[in-house]
Structure prediction request, 509 residues.
Amino acid sequence: MTTAAKTDVKGSYDRLMALSKEAALLGTCSSLLHWDKETYMPPGGAEHRADQLAYLSGLIHDKMVDPSVAGLLARCEGSRLAQDPLSVEAVNIRETRRAYDKEVKLPKRLVEELARTCSLSQQAWVEARRDSDFKKFRPWLEKVMKLNREKAECYGYARSPYDALIDDYEPYETSGNIAKVLDGLQRELVPLIQRLAAAPKRPDVSILTRRYPVEAQRELGRRAAEAIGFDLDRGRIDTVVHPFCSGMGPGDTRITTRYNERFINESFFGIMHETGHALYDQGLPKERFGTPMGSAVSLGIHESQSRLWENFVGRGRPFWTHFYPVAAKSFPEALGDVELDAFLHAINAVEPSHIRVEADEATYNLHIVLRFEIEAALLSGKLAVKDVPEAWNKRFKELLGIKVPDDRRGCLQDVHWSFGHIGYFATYTLGNLYAAQFYARAKKDVPGLEASFARGDFRPLLGWLRKNIHGHGARYRAGELVEKVTGKPLGHHDLIAHLKAKFEPLYGL
Ligand code: ZN
Prediction:
């Protein structure tokens, strides 16, 4: 290769990364506007904010499909930069290609129509849910499904249109593989939940709904977040209606929560969850910001980090061995007469319920199985939108054993479909499955891991996550990462083992 050709390749790569960073800078500006919309924006600013966000989305799209990208990619691919597939450059080229090929296939008309339809459909969903009336949402869901089908056709797919949509949230994953894993999980989960329901030892959940003053909750939540490693010099915790975590870029990761004086779980485990997301964001290599090597792998891997800290650490005995005396001091009125064992059982109560976001660690996954099956049936045409409530209620009864009283507590409970997010739900259970595999591996790799939690030291776990997951950015695809770290492909065995090991002793089984 001549010196000129080498310079040309290097120059093309640098230009490609510069474009990627420009798109990411615009993306983080948009994140900040979203964060402000949820926290401080006065209601009167909604319309102008929608214009600002739409304008930024257009600019990001333009950056991603910049006319120079195809040529730049072609010069980088097949060059020496792409030779070692796990090098920083090769990964950045691979993932930039992936993003470009998808974005360029979507006609601007479809992007705009999806955005417009979804903002109107969200409004319709709010009203339909309020009135528990599916008929009001039905025409919108029909439009959303039609546009999503069209999107899948534009992307193209090997086996099913669902694969094309899932790829937006969990790159390289397929509906066939998810169906297989969920099937195995469901087979073991349903009998476990039934056994727990029939167990003689019951938790006293009423202790969780005693009075927990908000100021003390705020303090305890902040202490827990800091203890597990959230750096408040590079992050914030604010209060909102619908909590989330948002990475604004290096040095600025914001989590949000909501406080309920009559339910300690809502803010405490909400903060643990969002902090798990935040630790991932804070652990991405900051010098690679704006490129795939400085980005998360997928929503499922992101969710594995939040679930790991929320459930595997935050609902475990070692964590509370350290934190319970602190909590009991913070809430003398609510917890003064409660033993650690009673508290542990209460925060780990397993009980089929209607609302996904309030579900426990075990039944939660059945809510996802249901949504996954319904979405797949809708996309394949086996299920018509008008028949969703009936199909939902029937399958819900089979999976969770309880009747759905109304659509508000049934098929109208989640915002995702109104946003146009079809294929998203599976990433929640993928997160639980990945978390179980990572956590089991971390316990093997780090001797005395849980003993360190009991001393209030969470650095050994965070260090392990930084080294094995966070620091790699998007170097490995999700399936590759889980195999590399845990030595086996995605499966349900570690999650089932974790649930049994935790719940059976609590329930006296
Ligand atoms: Zn999450």
Summary: The beta strands are 235-239, 245-249, 252-257. The first strand starts at residue 235 and ends at 239.
